[in-house]
Design goal:
The chain is of the alpha+beta class. The protein has one domain. Helix content is 29%, strand content 16%. The longest helix has 17 residues, at 71-87.
């Protein structure tokens, strides 16, 4: 979905090095449940999750999502995050994107975000699934 920089370098390695050189922290921000956004211009690459592990990807309209309640998704997301933590000298990890579109929701179970009629936060479901996803095992408790 993207292209490697030419000449090749590792953008995250560069960003960490330059931030630390200036006395700044660099935190990695993950959106572990969004697999594809329809406004993405680049075609989906052959090594994209939707092609390598299509059983993990759920379609909702034009969007592709990972269900944080599924054990395989939890393991996969944690593996990706730990890979970054172990390979880079980052100073923090943030997990975002717990706004998952769910069909047939009711006002009793959701909060529609102001100005965004297509994003729902299913409070109890999302929080529980993210809490059990294994992230708490690594110091976020």
């Amino acid at each position: 979905m993207g292209r490697s920089p030419q000449p090749f370098y590792d953008p995250l390695e560069f960003a960490v090095k330059e931030a630390h050189k200036r006395g700044l922290e660099l935190h990695a921000w993950f959106n572990p449940y969004r697999a594809h956004h329809p406004e993405t211009i680049s075609p989906i690459s052959e090594n994209h999750l939707s092609k390598t592990k299509p059983e993990l990807v759920k379609k909702y309209g034009k969007y592709m999502w990972l269900d944080p309640g599924e054990k395989q998704v939890q393991d996969y997301s944690l593996k990706v995050i730990l890979d970054v933590v172990n390979r880079y000298d980052i100073d923090g990890v943030h997990i975002d994107d717990n706004l998952i579109p769910i069909p047939n929701v009711t006002k009793q179970t959701t909060k529609i975000l102001p100005g965004n009629k297509n994003s729902y936060f299913v409070n109890d479901i999302d929080i529980e699934n993210i809490a059990v996803s294994g992230f708490s095992r690594y110091g976020s408790e």
